[in-house]
Amino acid sequence: MTHERCAELLRTLEHMTRIPDAPPIIVVDNGSHDGTAARVRAEFPGVRLLRHDHNLGAAARNWAVEHVTTPYVAFCDDDTTWQPGSLDRAADVLDEHPSVGAVMGRCLVEPGLREDPLVPELRASPVPAPHWLPGPALMSVMAALTAFRVDAFRAAGGFSARLWLGGEEELLALDLVASGWWLCWREDVVVHHRPSTARNARLRRQLGIRNTLLTAWLRRPVRDALRRSAAVLASAPKDRCTAGAVLRTCRLAPWVVREREVVPDEVERRLRLLEEPQRNSPARRYVG
């Protein structure tokens, strides 16, 4: 999916249309006004283009999945590129392990191809896993690095339109795990990320805090949601951006009450195992 980042999208499509995995590609243009749709139609006629008149946020991925005819779908932002062979390797994992609902890859950040700060945390995941799981077990994913089983994605309802964007993956991931699916990380599934400079960092930080708080209250027991909320806010700067995130969260309290569905005890036990790594993680600082 893309929004107002035509040049970055074209660079990504140039790469994705040439990898040997040869995936069918769907682009969702989230209400861009920079000529994105015209350029895609002219330069990549083999790509299916879905164009919306406004920015759907992460729910744009749901719209794309409505048009998917393959058993698996891998998401890709306009500033990420799946590396040759990685889509096939992710599909092989899903083929061979029918209880795996999603496979997340290893993120290397361009231009230096250093590992994303989150990678060591994923590699050392403390979540208990069955012996057959072909990688560390996860409780959340990053969408643009992940291949999903389409039936599982659809049954879980996809990404929440209410969360819009920024940490929107955790709610979907918890719903998948609560439904019995396993999520895993793979070292040999590689995705490059060239972070876009065309983004509102403060808005993304605010949405990230809000959505983390909302997810905790939507799915965790009260005591655990309180503890998670306190940890998130303790790690965030004490500024107007953070205050705005808290205010946005509070405004959605009636929706949270209506939609709240606490995860099973076993899922909550796994979440608790992640709390210490999350507190000490250099990748989880709301300081953008």
TrEMBL record:
Residues in Glycosyltransferase 2-like domain copies: 2-119
State the UniProt keywords alphabetically.
Answer: Glycosyltransferase, Transferase
**Coiled coil start-end:** none
What's a single GO MF annotation on this record?
Answer: glycosyltransferase activity
InterPro entries cross-referenced by the UniProt entry: Glyco_trans_2-like (IPR001173), Nucleotide-diphossugar_trans (IPR029044)
Q: Matching SUPFAM superfamilies, A to Z?
A: Nucleotide-diphospho-sugar transferases (SSF53448)
Source organism's superkingdom?
Bacteria
Q: Which pathway, per its entry?
A: Cell wall biogenesis; cell wall polysaccharide biosynthesis
Return the Pfam families for the record: Glycos_transf_2 (PF00535)
Q: Which family does it belong to?
A: Belongs to the glycosyltransferase 2 family.
Q: What is this protein called?
A: GT2 family glycosyltransferase
Species annotation: Saccharopolyspora hordei
